[in-house]
Amino acid sequence: MMKLWCIGAFSLASFYYAQNYPVSEISDVLKKNASAVIRNESTVLEINKIDEIFYRNSSAITVINKDAVGFSVPKIYYEKGNTVSNIKVTIYDEKGAKVKSYSRSDFSDVAANSQGSFYSDNRMMYLSYTPTSYPYTIEFSYDQKDQNTVFIPDFIPYYGFNISLQKSSFKIINKSGINLRSKTYDSSFGFASVNVSDEDGGKLYTYQNIPAMDHEDMVPNPQKILPKVSFSLDQFSLVGKKGNITTWKDFGLWYYNNLLKPVSVSTPQIKSEIAALNLSGSTEERVKKIYQYMQSKTRYVFVALGIGGWQPMMPDEVQKKGYGDCKGLTNYMKTLLDEAGINSYYVIVNSNSSPISFDVNFPKMAGNHVILVVPTEKGNIWLENTSQEMAYNHLSFNTTDRNVLAVKPNGIDIMETPSYSSQQNKEKQVLNVQLNPDKTITGNGKFIYTGNQYDFNLVFAGLGQSEKNNTIKNRLSTLDFEKIEMSDFKNNRDLATIDFDLNFKAVNYSKIVGSSYIFRAVPIYTNSIYHQNEKRNLPFEIRFSYEDEYEIIYKLPLGYTIEEMPENGSINSEFGSYKISFEKKEDQLIVKRFFQVNKGLFPKEKYNDYVSFRKKIMNSDNSKILISKKS
User: For 200-277, where are the E strands, in sequence order?
Assistant: First the structure.
């Protein structure tokens, strides 16, 4: 039921109770910040044997406004070997009066292709319903039998923001005779808790009256805030392939022998590819040449075929067709390295901008992306294989700073991906700015980005010239550009740096005061809006450390001199540090700015301290300089 989606995973659809759910019965606490309220949700899960699991799913969801329509759409994901039955849907209006009922015949059955053009054995049944008014309630139930017992879903109150919950229950009845492991993860922030009890030969887990999580600024992934319960059978089946998962080593042996080894097959054509590269030099040099060759001839297309969507494409298919998903491209890259006599490992990762790691003490099938690691005497080389533009030995912010599962012939090793320091995640900006008497400025700038800041600028690599200009104009919105042009864009795929030049003219930069002009110290800076929030409900996360280093060289208009300028300043906090300095030099003013930010997950009580820190920096960036005509 669960698949290894490359960057992203589909959630399971939900559930039904025979009531009529008037909206008036929802408490104000659950309505607050909610676009939808889960009124009553239930999963009863029966594990009958190693290759048979049965789900009885039901839910009633009240949709408060249009933002939750997509969340509430009745949908069922399934694949070959699943049996779906007893589908029922009933719509109720605000007062709980029945509007309409639907059955299986009203559902559409399509390829589960939310990621665009790809190939998949996965299917989705869904009911298209267009509401005529809000709020309304959708009651939905279905049964599903699955031959895959490796995917027992976690029990979490909900997966997104602005959803609240009245009651949700998850009951497991294990008739298989196989040991079922479970682990409860409490909310680190006391946001909610699960109740556990014994009931009729099974375990019953229940959540009740959990308010909505509003999508506040800098809020972490809900998985870092909410409680959950995880489950895993010691023995399992995936499309007829049976295995053990009592330890990560057991699971890794099964994974390697059943999913990877059968597709670790080279061909004469792949051997010829490696021979044609005429490899020489160090391991690092040879890996880089192979990697950049692979990038030059492949592209990403999502594929979910073969053993439940978890087995990679054969490398010769990728070689011939020139495309694949994260699994296929990684396996193809690994095969190329094998032919060159270079050892590497297929690595499973939780790809998410808010880092999420695997539990080293609770092995289970998980992950939503794969990458490759190449161990060398000088350290590990990490390869992201889905991007044609990504630099060699560079991982993006979606895969750094977390543990991963490296699948080896003797099992799984849990490894750590790189954690880039603030010095590695750097922007360097040098601006030469001419101040003009008509309140405009003209100038040119040099911009260099590394680390995670490289990732955020990689988008420019795929844009044409006019798109580059428009995108950078929108990004640097602290200036009112009359014209702007990006030039000499370079994506250095050897060193993971991006640099480019800008030529620009901006209007209304100065303010006339008599015969003098006032202008701000820093032309281009982060233009975020920060508000104090005495009622903040959630913790906040700075997801990675970084540094900005600016040098701004202002040239004064002819006949003008600096009359007033700010003092040099510094700001220090647990969140980072900031320095700014000013230097007069003939007809120039040189401003140097340094800003360093620390990553971390912070309690809500510190949010206003963070806002204060950022506001002080913005005030300093906006500090005023006065120039006047020489007397």
Answer: 202-210, 228-233, 235-238, 241-244
Mean pLDDT in consecutive groups of 10 residues from the start of the chain, 631 residues: 41 44 96 97 97 97 95 89 93 95 93 54 87 96 95 94 97 97 94 94 96 93 93 95 95 96 95 96 97 94 66 93 93 97 97 93 94 96 96 96 97 97 97 96 97 96 96 93 97 97 96 93 84 90 96 96 96 98 95 97 96 96 94 74
Residue pair 458/295 in contact by the 8 Å Cβ criterion: no
Q: pTM, whole model, 2 decimals?
A: 0.90
CA 347 to chain centre: 17
Reduced 3-state DSSP string for 261-308: HHHCCCCHHHHHHHHHCCCCCCHHHHHHHHHHHHHHHCEECCEECCCC
Asked if 484 and 504 touch (Cβ cutoff 8 Å), the reply is yes
CA distance 60 to 141: 9
Type of residue found at 32: K
CB contact set of 466 (below 8 Å; sequence gap of 6+): none
Q: How far is CA 279 from the centre of its chain?
A: 36
The torsion region of residue 247 among left (phi > 0), alpha (psi -120 to 50) and beta comes to beta
In 3-51, DSSP assigns E strands to 36-49
